[in-house]
Specification:
- By secondary structure, this protein is an alpha/beta fold.
- 40% of the residues lie in helices and 15% in strands.
- The chain has 12 helices and 13 strands.
- The strands form 3 sheets. It has a 7-stranded mixed β-sheet with strand order 2-8-7-6-5-3-4, with helices on both faces. A 4-stranded antiparallel β-sheet has the order 9-10-13-12, covered by helices on one side.
- The two termini are 19 Å apart.
């Protein structure tokens, strides 16, 4: 099988990830729930995971890094902290349902979409500026990279614009964490949410929330700290981490983070871009293919969408799966992105690569796609 669905979950991971998760199952207990060796091992592992993430993302303190179940969990914490009934919120035209559904679930929220043409970041930035300088907003939410098209949004410029207008920014880094450089301290966002199971090569059911602002917990319960009081602790990360931690997940994520830092973000980014350009150019040569490949490579990561005239995307995805090419087809939980790009009526077939894909796999995938057509 040629696995080209890493935008959903990276299947190939460093071997140390599985070993660490398995060892945690048999050797570690719950952090903060005892002074014995298994509990202390768990506490050290959780803290080491925070330290590694703090170093990778330039976060001043490991305590500002909250262990979550996934990016959606982190985004919900951030959104429910900053967005209140009646708030005005500006979002990009490429947001995932992990952003739009929580916003629609809060009563009377006024959502303004800063839409711009695909692979034209200057239009997206201009749309954010027009909204912020016009009616204004209480909160901004923006994805760093579109999960459908791999489009890199101008997140640094948007963050600067938000700072100028004193608007707190929430960043969805689901498709950029582990691939693109993300300097949390310089960005100045209130929150950045990310999964552990994609570009950070951790197990499913893991994620990180980087916090520059105080936050309101979604869950309340035991933390192993300040047990006498009946409200959640005020300090991070305990305030947002009620209940037993996913220590096997944290142990695996720690090794994934170490792998990314060891290989280097620049190396991973260049490799993924090289593969996705090869795939895009190859598919453009096939009859009937509409390939969403940026004319400016610097605005696209290792994610590529395409569709074929007269062919149903999901049926095509199944046929390619039968040939051993694992991709994703449909709307990819991001109908807003498809609406902005003009593909809502059909969806797309999406290919996404990781550090473990090879050029040979890309050539074989192109040949398989040509054979199906």
């Amino acid at each position: 099988m040629i696995y080209l669905d890493s935008a959903a979950t990276t299947l190939q991971k460093p071997p140390a990830v599985a070993r660490a998760a398995a060892r945690a199952v048999t050797h570690m207990a719950s952090p903060g729930r005892g002074g014995h060796r298994p509990a202390m091992m768990a506490a050290r592992t959780a803290y080491a995971c925070r330290e590694e993430a703090a170093a990778l993302f330039h976060v001043p303190s490991p305590e500002q890094i909250v262990l979550t179940f996934n990016a959606t969990h982190g985004l919900n914490i951030a959104i429910h902290t900053l967005v209140k009934p009646g708030s005005r919120v500006v979002i990009s035209g490429y947001e995932h349902n992990a952003v739009t559904r929580p916003l629609h679930g809060i009563p009377d929220v006024k959502i303004h979409t800063a839409a711009g043409e695909l692979f034209h970041p200057e239009q997206t930035l201009a749309a954010f500026r027009e909204i912020l300088e016009g009616d204004g907003a209480d909160v901004a939410v923006c994805t760093h990279v579109s999960n459908v098209f791999g489009y890199i949004l101008p997140i640094r410029e948007i963050a600067q614009l938000c700072r100028e207008h004193d608007v707190p920014l929430i960043v969805d880094a689901s498709q950029s964490a582990g691939c693109l450089d993300l300097d949390f301290q310089n960005l100045g966002a209130a929150f950045v949410a990310m999964p552990g199971h994609k570009g950070l090569y951790g197990p499913q059911g893991t994620g990180l929330l980087l916090c520059a602002a105080s936050a309101e917990p979604l869950l309340q319960g035991g933390t192993g700290s300040q047990s006498l009081q009946q409200v959640m602790p005020e300090f991070l990360p305990d305030r947002l981490e009620a209940g037993t931690h996913n220590i096997p997940g944290a142990a695996g994520l720690l090794e994934g983070l170490r792998y990314v830092r060891r290989v280097g973000l620049g190396t991973i980014e260049a490799h993924e871009r090289r593969l996705i350009r090869r795939l895009g150019v190859g598919l453009q040569k096939l009859p009937g293919f509409e390939v969403f490949l940026s004319p400016r490579p610097e605005y696209q990561t290792g994610v590529l969408s395409f569709r074929v005239a007269g062919r149903d995307c999901e049926e095509l995805g199944e046929q390619l799966g039968d040939r051993g090419i694992a991709l994703r087809a449909g709307l990819h939980c991001a109908p807003l992105a498809h609406q902005t790009a003009g593909t809502l009526d059909t969806g797309t077939v999406r290919a996404s690569v990781s550090a473990f894909n090879t050029g040979e796999e890309i050539l074989r995938a192109i040949a398989a796609m040509g054979a199906v057509i």
